[in-house]
Design brief:
- The protein has 2 domains: about 120 residues, Enolase-like, domain 1; about 230 residues, Enolase-like C-terminal domain (TIM Barrel, Alpha-Beta Barrel), CATH 3.20.20.120.
- It is built from 13 helices and 12 strands.
- α3 packs antiparallel against α4.
């Protein structure tokens, strides 16, 4: 039985929904907005978090209010199909299709939570999979010009932390040597596949060579494998290359320039429950490793991504650190990796959101 087939027939009653806006200052230097959808039915509530990045899209959604015609009785699969037929944006999104995927996942995840709660079941029970402790890394950019301070300050407070770091053009040999000395770097993100965003990085073959040599055991995420100069630097390390930004579907995995050992599966970027389940099944069938990634979630979306990681790739370097680590100066009392399993007794929630 496929993963989605274990969920599709769950009965679902929807009476309506409400919207809740969240915001926070995060370590990448911008104000993050997100919107929580509270899907209501039969005295229960399901939660999903919209992680569209453009603030104007959240403002438009919240100002329009709950206008979608969703009330009715469905199976979970039927409700997801209903969502896929609707335009979820009161005005066209700033970034087109990827934002539509994010918002579609919002409603699919809220419906999964609600259907499970109405059935009195947990996600791990429905999928017949154990909820395991989740390993995580802290994803950081080191400022401009880059310094060791963001890593050092976190290691001073949490010595066991592991990191995924954005390699930028201001990384010097001295900075790289300092990072090597920490022994705490699991992944390097080259951000070569982002265009027109605040996180774009211009590919630099000299930087690639320094990073490849300095971190021989680190994963190398989203490098430039098109430009001849960087392609040559990467020729002998294809087994260390992972992919994040281009992965929205199984077709995207199949279209990669060479078969991957590992991919970053972000539920919101896959954008649909059926599609996400099929991607998990595809990777398992083809021996492709997976890890989870976050989208600067501020509410239940982070816990839901951690829950999925606990079921499908608990031991991987999941970019799913508790949100407190993304504050400019994380405070005391944050949990270490791995996160102990904390699924809700019913529904699709993890930790404090249970």
């Amino acid at each position: 039985m496929s993963t989605f087939d274990r969920l599709a027939d769950l009965p679902l009653r929807v009476d309506g929904y409400t919207l809740e806006g969240l915001h926070a200052e995060v370590s990448s230097g911008f104000t993050r907005l997100s919107t929580v959808v509270h899907l209501e039915g039969a005295g229960a509530e399901g939660l999903g978090e919209d992680v569209v990045y453009e603030s104007v899209d959240h403002v438009a959604l919240q100002e329009a209010g709950p206008t979608l015609p969703l009330a009715g009785d469905y199976s979970l699969g039927e409700f997801c199909e209903r969502i896929d037929q609707l335009d979820l944006f009161p005005v066209p999104p700033q970034r087109g299709q990827v934002s539509r995927l994010y918002r579609r996942w919002t409603f699919h995840s809220a419906a999964l939570d609600l259907a499970l709660r109405q059935a009195g079941r947990s996600l791990h029970d429905a999928l017949d999979r154990p909820a395991r402790s989740v390993a995580f890394v802290v994803s950081l950019r080191l400022g401009e010009p880059a310094t060791l301070e963001p890593v050092r300050s976190r290691l001073d407070a949490y010595p066991a932390l592991r990191f995924k770091l954005d390699a930028t053009n201001s990384w010097t040999p001295e900075l790289i040597a300092g990072l090597v000395d920490t022994g705490a770097v699991d992944s390097i993100d080259f951000k070569a596949l982002y265009k027109g965003t605040i996180v774009d990085v211009q590919p630099d073959p000299e930087l690639y060579r320094r990073v490849i040599d300095a971190f021989p055991h680190a994963w190398l995420e989203d490098p430039d494998v098109v430009t001849p100069e960087t392609t040559r630097e990467l020729a002998d390390v294809h087994d260390r290359i992972t992919w994040d930004a281009p992965i929205h579907s199984i077709a995207d995995i199949e279209a990669l320039p060479f078969p991957p050992r590992m991919v970053n599966l972000k539920p919101s970027r896959i954008g649909g429950l059926r599609e996400l389940c099929a991607t998990y099944d595809y990777c398992a069938a083809h021996g492709i490793g997976a890890y989870g990634g976050g989208q600067f979630e501020l509410g239940p979306g982070r816990g839901q991504a951690q829950y999925l990681a606990s079921l499908f790739h608990a031991d991987a370097p999941n970019d799913l650190a508790p949100v407190g680590y993304h504050q400019p100066h994380p405070g005391p009392g944050l949990p270490d990796s791995p996160l102990g399993p904390t699924p809700s007794p019913t529904g699709f929630r993890w930790g404090a959101e249970g």
